[in-house]
């Protein structure tokens, strides 16, 4: 009787919204339809979870089934975790270091060529703790890996090594791209969002008045509004933007002031961090200019986020020949 | 000819024109529509602009402007700045009762970015009335539209015995108490 596994299953069920528990359990497929029918889904979630745990105990559920349920839960609700994107390549020499620790690993393959890998971490001396998990999503035809490391960041190098070996690459590098929305991260790196296209053809004039009422309301800035709209289209494209939570800019530039003030005696870079956060960062950036809150065109530092596939930037001084700043690659 | 002058053009028969400056987008458009819905016995033209100066290419098409209402959104410092920048393009004779400040967004006290002192100072420096409203609520929007319409009637000279200057002094004295 695996009490740890049963308790883990019970806690996973508690995380699911009540109306969807039945669907998730059916996808899981461990409990039979007959068993599922005996659960009363009109109770509180606490009671439902106890019913499910009871049935799992009777059916001798083990860690493997518990892990599978956890994978299915995270596949349906990926937005509860923060995902980072990693890029693998074959340049350079492959180097390995040895490390031994106890882990539980489970795989599940999904239709869109995505392999979901769940890893529960232990230490060389203790069994894996099922509550300390990392997730890896790997699309086999691409060099990109999406990792949600959650608790133990110290195991990250080991995880990266394992990915490199398993997928037959040499090196792995963290792209500075992080978000809660896994699908948007995929959209950005696989270039599935609508991109801007430079059009060299002049837009047709729109002189059509839609209603008669419009004759009495005159928009003085109509041509300006159309210009802003056109610039926005060029920067962001037409379709929905990928969903990002924040953009972070780390400044390592020198403080420039009037030389006679001499504010800082030591010539050290001025450290400053600017973070933009939003429920949907790119859509809010897109609506800044039309709302009259910013001038169009927006700074390229903001609009380059999907193209450069990053939302962490380091801005350093340019080298001595040209004063100014540039974005590190 | 970037500065707006009050008496540069001839008035049109039986009509009046109001210019709403500032707070682009939804609030302006909805206020304009609310004003058009009101019952009135003269023709009304509403011009919307996000800032001054107005584009010069449409100058010959524009009628004489009787009332300028500067719309400041209290949630956005940018709108206050842009209104202050636009004030430089208004001829001084407009400020004898043909200008008013409309401050919107006062329903959301938690999101105030603009200080009340700045608004009061603006009203005092330019000797013009300040009207507070919340354009997102339909009832207040209709009431504000009615007030603006009444002011427009007076500024266009359609109310006998009441001039724009007299009315603005009336508004300021009652607000000060």
Automatic annotation (TrEMBL), chain A:
Family per similarity comment: Belongs to the CENP-N/CHL4 family.
GO biological process: CENP-A containing chromatin assembly; chromosome segregation
Keywords from the named record: Centromere, Chromosome, Nucleus
Name of this chain's protein: Centromere protein N
Pfam assignment, any one: CENP-N
A cellular component annotation (GO) from this entry: chromosome, centromeric region
Lineage start: Eukaryota, Metazoa, Chordata, Craniata, Vertebrata
InterPro entries registered for this protein in UniProt: CENP-NAC/CAD_complex, Chl4/mis15/CENP-N
Top-level taxonomic group: Eukaryota
PANTHER family: CENTROMERE PROTEIN N
Organism: Phasianus colchicus (Common pheasant)
Subcellular location(s) of the protein: Chromosome, Centromere; Nucleus
Automatic annotation (TrEMBL), chain B:
One GO cellular component, as annotated: chromosome, centromeric region
Compartments where found: Chromosome, Centromere; Nucleus
Pfam family, one: CENP-M
Stored Gene3D superfamilies: P-loop containing nucleotide triphosphate hydrolases
Keywords, alphabetical: Centromere, Chromosome, Nucleus
Name assigned to this protein: Centromere protein M
Originating species: Phasianus colchicus
């Amino acid at each position: 009787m695996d009490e740890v596994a049963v308790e883990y299953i019970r806690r996973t069920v508690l995380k699911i919204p009540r109306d969807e528990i039945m669907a998730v359990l059916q996808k899981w497929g461990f409990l039979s339809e007959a068993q599922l029918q005996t659960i009363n889904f009109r109770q509180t979630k606490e009671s439902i979870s106890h019913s499910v745990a009871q049935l799992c105990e009777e059916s001798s559920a083990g860690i493997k089934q518990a892990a599978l349920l956890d994978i299915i839960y995270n596949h349906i609700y990926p937005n509860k975790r923060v995902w980072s994107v990693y890029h693998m390549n074959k340049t350079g020499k492959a180097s390995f270091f040895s490390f031994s620790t106890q882990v539980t690993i489970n795989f599940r393959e999904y239709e869109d060529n995505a392999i979901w890998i769940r890893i529960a971490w232990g230490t060389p001396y203790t069994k894996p703790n099922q509550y300390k998990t990392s997730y890896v999503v790997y699309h086999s035809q691409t060099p990109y890996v999406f990792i949600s490391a959650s608790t133990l960041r110290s195991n990250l190098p080991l995880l990266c090594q394992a990915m490199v070996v398993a997928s037959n690459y040499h090196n792995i590098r963290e792209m500075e791209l992080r978000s809660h929305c896994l699908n948007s991260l995929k959209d950005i790196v696989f270039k599935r969002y609508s991109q801007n296209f430079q059009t060299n053809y002049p837009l047709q004039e729109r002189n059509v008045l839609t209603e008669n009422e419009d004759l009495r309301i005159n928009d003085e800035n109509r041509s300006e509004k159309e210009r802003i709209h056109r610039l926005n289209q060029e920067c962001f494209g037409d379709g929905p933007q990928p969903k990002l939570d924040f953009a972070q800019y780390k400044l390592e530039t020198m403080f420039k002031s009037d030389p006679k003030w001499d504010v800082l005696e030591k010539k050290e870079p001025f450290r400053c961090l600017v973070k933009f956060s939003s429920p949907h960062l790119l859509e809010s950036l897109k609506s800044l200019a039309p709302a009259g809150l910013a001038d169009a065109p927006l700074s390229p530092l903001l609009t380059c986020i999907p193209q450069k596939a990053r939302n962490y930037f380091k801005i350093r001084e340019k080298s001595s020949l040209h004063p100014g700043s540039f974005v590190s690659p | 000819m970037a500065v707006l002058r009050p008496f540069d053009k001839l008035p049109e028969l039986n009509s009046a024109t109001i210019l709403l400056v500032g707070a682009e987008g939804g609030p302006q458009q909805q206020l304009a529509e609310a004003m058009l819905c009101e019952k009135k016995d003269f023709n009304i033209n509403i011009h919307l602009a996000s800032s001054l100066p107005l584009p010069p290419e449409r100058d010959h098409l524009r009628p004489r402007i009787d009332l300028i209402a500067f719309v400041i959104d209290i949630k956005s410092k940018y709108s206050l700045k842009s209104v202050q920048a636009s004030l430089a393009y208004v001829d001084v004779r407009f400020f004898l009762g043909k200008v008013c400040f409309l401050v919107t967004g006062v329903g959301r006290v938690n999101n105030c970015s603009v200080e009340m002192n700045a608004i009061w100072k603006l009203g005092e420096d330019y000797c013009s009335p300040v009207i507070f409203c919340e354009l997102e609520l339909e009832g207040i929007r209709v009431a504000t539209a009615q007030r603006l319409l009444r002011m427009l009637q007076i500024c266009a000279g359609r109310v006998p015995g009441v001039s724009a200057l007299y009315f603005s002094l009336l508004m300021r004295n009652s607000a000060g108490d």
